[in-house]
Amino acid sequence: MTGKGIKVLGHTKYYRVKTYTSATEIVIEDDKDDEISAYTGGSITAGATYIIEANTAITVTNSTIYGYILELDRALSEAKIPKIDRSLIVSPAIASVLKKASELIPAVATAYDDIVKKGLLGQIGGFTVYQSMQVAGDNTNGYWILAAHKSWCTLAQAFTDSKIEDVVGGFGTAYKGLNVYGAKVVDGRRKAAAALFCKI
After folding, report:
1. What average pLDDT does range 60-78 have in this prediction?
2. What values do phi and psi take at 109, rounded to 5?
3. Same structural domain, 191 and 99
4. Percentage above 90 pLDDT, the chain
5. How distant is the alpha carbon of residue 119 from its chain centre?
6. Pairing mode, strands 86-90 and 127-131
7. Are 43 and 79 contained in the same domain?
């Protein structure tokens, strides 16, 4: 439950579970990452009805997964995210389901390098599909399918402390540098992505 969205009956938006102590005691906060943790949603009465976001994984098959992908497409469109440059990032297990779906347009042979080097699977429902081991999940706890526009995540990369120095023994010269990188999804760009929590 920790880190997931929570919506209480009578409130109009989701907040986030900050800590879970027991079934009757949790701490919630505003669903923001770029500000100091705080809760501004007002009082919640004891015993109030609530919904936990992505609490139960939806079972998908090769015949039903396309419908859920269209729901991800709808969520991005309702957030006014451009139709171009949308990607779907899936784990290998979900990729195996997608490969059996008749709606998947597989990558053609001319894209062999992309298939091998970049994990490109093909196109489905307006998304370019990529397979990645970095997508969290398993079939016990559920898999995540991430749908995103390219504006969703910012990446910075640079070489610092770069220098050329002699190799020990005078054999030649070597280039030495520190590769520094990082990624950030700021609050304002979170609307450029949607996720499906599922199992197979």
Report:
1. 92
2. -60, -30
3. yes
4. 22
5. 16
6. parallel
7. no
Cα atoms in the 13 Å half-sphere on the side-chain side of 94: 32
Taking alpha carbons only, the member of 28, 32, 24, 55 closest to residue 42 is 28
Q: Say how many CA atoms lie within 13 Å of 40 toward its Cβ.
A: 8
Q: Name residue, tokens 């770069």.
A: 162
CA distance 122 to 71: 19
In angstroms, rounded to a whole number, what is the distance separating the alpha carbons of residues 151 and 26? 33
How many residues does this entry show for the chain? Answer: 200
The rounded distance, in Å, linking the Cα atoms of 140 and 136 is 12
Provide the residue type at 38 as one letter. Answer: A
CA–CA dist 192, 74 (Å, integer): 12
The answer to whether the CB of 111 falls within 8 A of the CB of 130 is no
**pTM (two decimals):** 0.71
Alpha-carbon span 96 to 112, nearest angstrom: 18
Calpha distance 109→167 (Å, rounded) = 44
Domain extent, residue 67, equals: 58-152+185-199
Token pair listed for 100: 């059996």
- Is 26:50 a contact under the CB 8 Å cutoff? no
| Total structural domains within the chain | 2
